[in-house]
């Protein structure tokens, strides 16, 4: 099952040494992939904006925003109804049962109350981690300063040298399937202890090669310049300055099926209520804003020929040809 980053799935735990599995799938900034095909959109709907100075991309949790909000709301309603119905039924028959059965009823009420409270408490935790937060938590790769910037859940910003991040392809389980994503470890001064971890973009795949090509897109931007990534880019997600619409959110959830039209259709009964939870999460959350010091380090020249802003979409003729 997909584990959101805020639940600290395997690979995101900190204050530990790098594991052998992470060393086996390391990604190096100075190693070029020869399988890279410019006609394939390896950025996979993760770019928000690009220019000669930086490329801004989405966080790992963005595609599934709203799912946990929906589950939390449904769980709270369901457990509240179960608790209320149980108490109502037991109190209605209280006068008609003997002392022994009353003790059993008290035990049942206590059990239902405790279980319901635990489910409701965790649901509230999940709800407030997705809602009343940020619409997304962007990551910026600055090729001029060779810095990576990221937004934490509490609104603070971290910054680290591109060359000092330990990038690797992480394997995890999703509904019984091996899936892969890209994780970056920010290391302590000893270069072996993990201080903080983040996912590079929101793209996941069941094929590790897809992730290597996805990584290559951003590696080439940082190492070779913006020309090729700029040419390849066909769409920039319209997230920088506004909240997504309900339809955009619904389509983003639908695209989680990675192109399988049949699965997209079959998942519609699930995606429809999830899209309403996503709408709640987005409407109650703030649009992220970078602090002034980040914006100053990421200044874009007025005559920059490689600017594609949030909301850019390639002409249909170009998209079809590609």
From the structure above, extract its key features.
5-stranded antiparallel sheet, 322 residues, single chain, 4-stranded antiparallel sheet, disordered C terminus, 40% helix, elongated, alpha+beta, 9 strands
Describe the structure in your own words.
The protein is α+β, with helices and mostly antiparallel strands. The chain contains 10 helices and 9 strands. The two termini are 33 Å apart. Residues 317-322 have low confidence and may be disordered. The protein has a 5-stranded antiparallel β-sheet with strand order 2-3-4-5-6, with helices on one face. Strands 1-7-8-9 form a 4-stranded antiparallel β-sheet.
List the helices and strands and how they pair.
Elements: H1 20-24, E1 26-27, E2 47-50, E3 54-57, H2 67-92, H3 99-130, E4 139-142, E5 147-151, E6 157-161, E7 165-174, E8 177-187, E9 194-199, H4 208-224, H5 227-232, H6 246-254, H7 261-266, H8 268-283, H9 292-297, H10 316-321
Antiparallel strand pairs: 1-7, 2-3, 3-4, 4-5, 5-6, 7-8, 8-9
Helix pairs in contact: 2-3, 2-8, 6-8
Summarize the structure.
The chain is an alpha+beta fold and 322 residues long. The protein has helices spanning 20-24, 67-92, 99-130, 208-224, 227-232, 246-254, 261-266, 268-283, 292-297, 316-321, and strands at 26-27, 47-50, 54-57, 139-142, 147-151, 157-161, 165-174, 177-187, 194-199.
- Give the number of DSSP strands: 9
Q: What fraction strand?
A: 15-25%
Sheet with most strands:
5 strands, antiparallel
Arithmetic mean pLDDT: 87
The structural class is alpha+beta
What is the global morphology? elongated
Unreliable sequence segments: 317-322
User: Helical stretch count?
Assistant: 10
Report the span from N to C terminus: 33 Å
- The Rg value, from CA coordinates, equals 23 Å
Strand order of the largest sheet: 2-3-4-5-6
Order of helices and strands: HEEEHHEEEEEEHHHHHHH
Which bin fits the share of residues in helices? 40-55%
């Amino acid at each position: 099952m997909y584990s959101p980053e805020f639940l600290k799935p395997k690979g995101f735990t900190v204050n530990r040494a790098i594991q052998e599995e992470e060393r086996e799938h390391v990604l190096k900034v100075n190693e070029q992939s020869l399988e890279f095909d410019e006609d394939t959109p390896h950025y996979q709907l993760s770019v928000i904006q690009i220019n000669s100075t930086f490329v801004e991309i989405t966080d790992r949790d963005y595609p599934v925003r709203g799912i946990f909000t929906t589950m939390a709301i449904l769980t709270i309603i369901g457990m509240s109804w179960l608790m209320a119905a149980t108490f109502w039924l037991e109190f209605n028959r209280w006068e008609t049962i003997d002392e022994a059965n009353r003790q059993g009823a008290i035990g049942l009420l206590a059990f239902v109350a405790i279980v319901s409270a635990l489910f409701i408490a965790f649901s509230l935790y999940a709800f407030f981690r997705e809602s009343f937060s940020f619409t997304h938590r962007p990551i910026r790769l600055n090729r001029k300063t060779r810095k990576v910037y990221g937004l934490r859940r509490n609104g603070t910003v971290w910054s680290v040298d591109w060359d000092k991040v330990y990038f690797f392809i992480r394997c995890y389980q999703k509904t019984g399937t091996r899936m892969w994503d890209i994780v970056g470890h920010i290391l302590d001064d000893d270069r072996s202890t993990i201080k903080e971890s983040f996912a590079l973009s929101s793209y996941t795949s069941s094929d590790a090669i897809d992730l290597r090509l996805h990584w290559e897109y951003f590696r080439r931007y940082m190492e070779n310049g913006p020309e090729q990534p700029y040419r390849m880019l066909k769409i920039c997600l319209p997230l920088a300055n506004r909240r997504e619409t309900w339809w955009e959110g619904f389509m983003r959830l639908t695209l989680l099926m990675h192109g399988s039209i049949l699965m997209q259709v079959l998942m519609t009964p699930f995606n429809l209520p999830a899209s309403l939870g996503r709408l709640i999460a987005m409407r109650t959350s703030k649009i992220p804003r970078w602090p002034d010091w980040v914006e100053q380090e990421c200044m874009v020249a007025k005559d920059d020929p490689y600017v594609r802003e949030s909301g850019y979409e390639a002409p249909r003729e170009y998209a079809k040809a590609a």
